[in-house]
Amino acid sequence: MKLAVGICGFQPGYEIILKQEGIPFRTISEDYDFEKEDFAVIILGRNAVSRKEKIMDFLHSGGFVLSEAEIFAELFHLRIKTKKVDYLIAEEKSDFSEVDFADIFGKISIIKDAKSEFLDKNLQIRFRKIGNGGAIILPFDVNLLITDFRSMRKKFYYPRKEQPSEIVAKISKAKIRKIVMIALRSLFFRNNLPLVRLSYFPENWKSIFIFRLDTDFCSFADAEKMYEICRQNDIRATWFLDTESDEKIKQYAAFKNQELALHCYKHKVYDTERENFANLEIGVRKLEKAGVKPVGFAAPFGDWNLALAHALEKMKFFYSSEFTLDYDNLPFFPFVAGKFSSVLQIPIHPVSLGRLRRSHFSEDEMLQYFRQVIRQKYEKREPIIIYHHPHHLHFNIFDAIFKEVSEFENLGFLTMTEFAQWWKFRSNLQIFPEFSHNKILLKKENLNKNVSLEVQIPQGVAYLNMEKSEIDLDEIDFQKEKSRGMKVDYKYLHKKGWREFLYDWETRRNKKK
Ligand SMILES: [Zn+2]
Q: For residues 504 and 264, what is the distance between their CA atoms, to the nearest angstrom?
């Protein structure tokens, strides 16, 4: 039995998610013939309707599928109702509870189906048994949500009266990924199969810590103070430099054991590829003159648009990082104008100390906020990537954070480039494990030391090196892992008050400067 997911037709949103999760998948083209044994789960797409007979055979012989409501309704002749929603909140006690809530800002489709049961009523996720197999039905269009480029100001929850906010991606893409992941896992388990995927981090680390700095025309004295704190704590930060002053570039170039990358020449993202390209090119040339060869880029204001994406590709950047495209998520290659970009996107936690200050956090509250974000990401095995502007000072907060994370067990410390390099290596790995007699079988040519495997079964999870081509599940000690975040006040979070209007106005004013 193969442990791969089949995707019906070309579905870029699902491909992004499966690559992020490291789950092996194959695209099922129009004329591709398949048997029950070929796929642990099939994700149905638009072309599923024209292949109805094949899919019914698959289901009746015990196959499992993930479908969206509209496709499912068409296949099974069900009535459907659509509704516009801003966000969905998961049930308190369902398989999907850890999602908390997901910003959708679009249409959901609700099927009328007496033969299916709710897995999460609030999220409108259903399961229906069909033949010896079954289907999980999602209410939204995953491809549409994952390839959405809109942004808006959002509040980030922290248990106090005033919440920090930032302009970030409108759709919570990480939450959509989690919903798809939980649905797939449930289908693997219903199929009595383990879910096998590539780990998120190298070296079997539980998480990684990356510290990003945007220099934003700060004084060199402030940058130097920040550098000193990094150096004292052995933190190799990734610095995104403004490049107006050749004098300052020379000083940055003397930093030891730090990554130097490009922030901007003019602190702006333009609407045309030509202007963005020109701005990037000046910045890169100026850095190169000082002996700095930047491979990474982080845009002013976290802004991202198609014109910038094209310019970054043309300049052959290795990676970029913009929270208006995505935040608090795993890296991915954005789907730009009909194809996947060659520039890896590395999402970060988008709330910086400047935003906390604007929301009147005291110094102690700022430290507590970052401690809480970091602790939660570590417990959930998500990358910890935070950023700062040296001109916002408060260096002692970062000194305290660095000292705290240095005590974390099994936490890796990387620069953005190091993480991007490893992630690209992982993205290119094509492993297709098989499952037989409670053993996972890997091909010899796939074995390597750089990426490990995560194996999930209903009893727990295990992290394994990919050094043996046969993994006997009877010999493995599976651990239960469960962690929920803090309770979030969703209603309050989504209510727009006068402060958010004021901050939007301030952002527009800053961009005009
Ligand atoms: Zn900036």
A: 22
Structural domains in the chain? 5-198 (3.40.50.880), 203-422 (3.20.20.370), 429-475 (no CATH)
Tell me how far apart the alpha carbons of residues 198 and 201 are, in angstroms, rounded to a whole number: 9
Tokens of 82: 């659509």
Ligand 1 centroid to residue 88 C-alpha, Å: 32
Instruction: Find the 304 Cα to ligand 1 centroid distance in Å.
Output: 13
Q: What is the DSSP letter of 2?
A: B
Each residue of 154-208: pLDDT tens digit? 999 888 888 999 999 999 999 999 999 999 999 999 999 999 999 999 999 999 9
The string of pLDDT tens digits covering residues 369-387 is 999 999 999 999 999 999 9
CA–CA separation, 287 and 294 (whole Å): 7
Spans of the chain, pLDDT less than 50: none
Residues 408, 469: Cα–Cα separation, whole Å: 32
Q: What's the CA-to-centroid distance between 302 and ligand 1, angstroms?
A: 8
Distance 214 CA to ligand 1 centre (A): 6
| Ligand 1 center to 236 CA (angstroms) | 20
What is the CA(389)–ligand 1 centre distance, in A?
A: 8
Instruction: Give distance in angstroms: CA of 61 to centre of ligand 1.
Output: 56
Which two structure tokens, joined as six digits, stand for 117?
């049961």
What's the 300 CA to ligand 1 centre distance in angstroms? 4
Smallest CA-to-CA distance from 164 within 172, 174, 154 is with 154
